[in-house]
Protein 1
Amino acid sequence: MAYTDSIRLLVAEDVPQVSQHVRNLLSVQSQVKLLEVLNDGAKVVEVAKQLRPDVVMVDLLLQGKVKGPQLIEKLRDSGLEIPVVVLTVPQHPLARDPNRGIDAVLTLPFSGFELVNTLSHVLADRQARATGACRVVSVFSPKGGVGKTTIAFNLAVALGQMGVATALIDGSLQYGDLRALLKVPSDVPSILDLPTDRVQESDLREVMWRDPAGIDILLAPPRVEMAEMVTARDVEKTISLLRRLYEAIVIDTPTTLSEVTLALLDGSDLVLSIVTYDSTTIHNTIAVGEVFSSIGYTPEKLQYLVNRSDSSGGIGRDELARTLGRRPEFEVVSDGRLVVQANNEGMPFVVSSPDAAVSRDVRRAAQAIMGRTANSPVRN
Ligand SMILES: Nc1ncnc2c1ncn2[C@@H]1O[C@H](COP(=O)(O)OP(=O)(O)OP(=O)(O)O)[C@@H](O)[C@H]1O
Ligand SMILES: [Mg+2]
């Protein structure tokens, strides 16, 4: 699967050197298509109405009849709903403020990588908010083996049990953990089998694996080397398509923060970061938390789930909260016997042992995620 459509960008810039800089950066890549550079702020809204770009970039210091700040306001009030990236210089710092129409800020000088990243991040974020009916939750951790796949699978099934139409995406593309967990034959379709363009709902349904527990699963490719064939753009597109068909999407993610992983997280409303009472896991979680906040993830978007929460290994609950800077939103207890056996049988424990503490914990998280209970899952 290779989606060809790139991000269509309109730029409002009246300094020739800066326009040239942006042109140069964009000339060596294909993810962003530069539609036009306008040096007159007064024309931008009208041209945007005609060209319908995916993103507009505005120089804060734009001069003329309609200056940078006015243009940002006009675009916000135009009803066009096009995200705006504001370009500035270090002497005029500016904070991101979506309510004021500033979806992201780029400070000169920036690299092509930063430019493309910011544009795709802003677009994914806007799409996530525009289709508010579906909840997309990524289960992530910067440390392997903490229980991401186990939690993602059981969380998705718990959502299904609540009557929520749920899809589970196996985003651990290289190893396809869910394929192994569920013992799915290798000829069952994967994310790679989605047609390139104009995917219909029926196409999607044919590609999804229907688990006996009642959820639909989009599997990872059957072989390790095939993971490379899935691009960040494919992932964005897939999420936005699935959003139309399901009320909740749960994504099992890999540990590495690759471009594709970031696309999965960007496209999510909630990133559930799995922590355990293990000092390297906590260390990595804090490090990656800093990355998330620097790319604009809000504290509501990033939430913590402590897995095996009763195996504290000498680290206190308060100490963990202090280190993370807040109390984790969710806890799931340890149950070695049940969890390992359920996983080996490819069975969600929320189905096989609904009354076990571990199942109750996962259900509590599922309910809070759908806003069905007060979000106060942590026992004292
Ligand atoms: N709450 C729990 N209680 C007991 N065992 C658990 C619990 N959660 C996960 N495990 C066990 O921990 C192991 C790792 O779990 P899992 O494969 O879900 O982790 P992961 O984060 O997806 O790993 P990877 O990084 O390899 O993808 C499994 O053997 C699983 O059964
Ligand atoms: Mg896994």
Note: The domain at 7-127 is CATH 3.40.50.2300 (Rossmann fold).
Protein 2
Amino acid sequence: MARLQGRRIIITGGASGIGRATAALFRQEGAAVAVLDRTASPDGAPSFEVDVSDATSVANAVAAAVKALGGLDGVVNAAGIFSDAGLADTSAELFTRTLAVNLTGTFLVMQAAAPHLKSAGGGTIVNIASGVGLTPTGPGSTAYVASKSGVIGLTKAVAMELAPAVRVNSVCPGAVDTPMTHAFLVDASGATVPGIARRYALGRSAAPDELAAAILFLTSNESSFVTGIALPVDGGRTYH
Ligand SMILES: NC(=O)c1ccc[n+]([C@@H]2O[C@H](COP(=O)([O-])OP(=O)(O)OC[C@H]3O[C@@H](n4cnc5c(N)ncnc54)[C@H](O)[C@@H]3O)[C@@H](O)[C@H]2O)c1
């Protein structure tokens, strides 16, 4: 039996990387998926253009997606942008933009989706935070770390508010080979660059599918007693 049979799910950032792998796995598992992204899904999943940092754009895209799906049972917030700039090099504009996409975007999508999840009788939300939101890897990424710590806290707050009907969890990935990271994560042979691999007990970065599997667990009924957590999927970086 497919693990998401009959579930109707919005995936932001579903046109690339972790969101794209999640959309593919969820469709395999029987879900009807709507991708909300700046660009359309390259895999032919029904797609709705959105800028998650813009409240009107989110309201319109969520309404259109819910109409197309015929209701809503789940959300995955995977849209995001990265910045490695440190405190001195982060302009106010860069800080504001990073927070607007990663944190405000997650908030806006949850706010627009929650009434639909409730009227379906319940559902799930999975927000993609980051391992650096729990434990930074070192100096730099000031705005990004702030945004991802915010996503972890926001997830806990909304989990308490929407319980028991809606379960809300975050996933905290370590380094994942996606279009966001490929240029600095992977060398010409396809191996994780040594300076990054050393940080991980498992000695490598992750494939997007390995994150999709964790997101599937938190979306499926297998995690029926799990809400409000921040799940590290980080190859052991936290304790290494
Ligand atoms: N790749 C990693 O190593 C890693 C590690 C930890 C956390 N994450 C997080 O995982 C999530 C997915 O990242 P990824 O690595 O798959 O990156 P990616 O760049 O491959 O995918 C991100 C997607 O988000 C979309 N997006 C960006 N800004 C948007 C906006 N304003 N409105 C709508 N869509 C927007 C992009 O178009 C893209 O399709 C992000 O939140 C990222 O911060 C990634």
Note: Strands lie at 8-12, 32-37, 47-49, 74-77, 123-128, 166-173, 230-233.
Protein 3
Amino acid sequence: MRSRPTPKDLELCRYCPSLCQSRCPVNLALADIAWSPCGKMSGVWRLQEGLVKATREATIPLHMCLDCLACREVCDHGVEVPDNLAGARLAADTHYAQTQNPVDTTWNTQKAWETLRSCTPAWRCVDEAAVLLVPGREMLEPEGVDQLKALFQVLDKLSDEVVGVNPDSVLDDGHFSYIHGNLAQAKTAAGKAFKRYGKYKRIVVASPHNLSFVTLHWPQLGYDRSKSVMGVIEYLSSAMDWNHSARFDGRVAWHDPCHLGRHLEQYQLPRDLLKWAGRYAPVELLHNHGNSLCCGGGYPMSTRDPDGAAKVTAMRVAEIDASEADVVVTGCSQCVHTLREANPEKPIKHLVEFLAEVL
Ligand code: SF4
Ligand code: SF4
């Protein structure tokens, strides 16, 4: 987490032959070098140096990123472009992030709690949960609630008696404010959630965006809960009977969500689960593992420039269409929503929906 871009990184990107150009989905989808990592970093540099005025036009490069980390995979210099862009959005002396087309980063936690409570078996709504479930923002949107219900079905099928929810399950952890350039709001939200999470021995987070923010970024704010926080896939897989026989008969492929894959390096466990669940070995999409392609749902671009982000989605949809997969499974509600909306013909499932069917 940076509160401003790093001058050394800005210089490296300006003089680099742009090793990462071919990996940036925004550059590829919009066919514009201005949106390559190098182009965006040059835009930040021009603003920092005062070479251009902080007009709406000049600040667009700060938001043309999906936080997918694909550029990091090929950068020989160790530059983290999304972190630098986030730093530029947050920089105290650069007023452009919040004055230009601001995104409302507040979260209606009361509404989120009502949604969560309505989908949760009554006995799991408890003040003192042994294991607190944190679904994350996207699973509590109208298009995510079926995934939430499927998650409870999976927990029931695994005879889990310890996962519970209460209003702490819908606390804002600061991720959405941070990624949209509101550091003050992010810090306040993270501090409050950090304190409340201290009540629990175990916190299971379903959203990879929130999981990576809490485990990788919170410690940089001085809030470290990495020992008690774990992802829902790890939690469910630890409770499963791996000797159980296969039930799924079709070809299945895993779409690597950027925050589970490149951010948290969780590639193998979901593939092991698909292998366990299916008669056939999982097939791979053209880009996979560290080389995977973002679904276009990454922030801040998907909120700042949804039409541009949809062009990234179209690239991933084309790969899905060209694959042999009968069903594509993923571990992020934002990926599910983005891919389903763009490709209603193809079955796209969250892992919990897939498990609810095969367990
Ligand atoms: S991120 Fe790395 S590879 Fe890409 S332009 Fe910057 S220095 Fe070059
Ligand atoms: S994080 Fe992804 S979208 Fe952002 S600059 Fe890097 S490759 Fe492009």
Note: The mean pLDDT is 92.
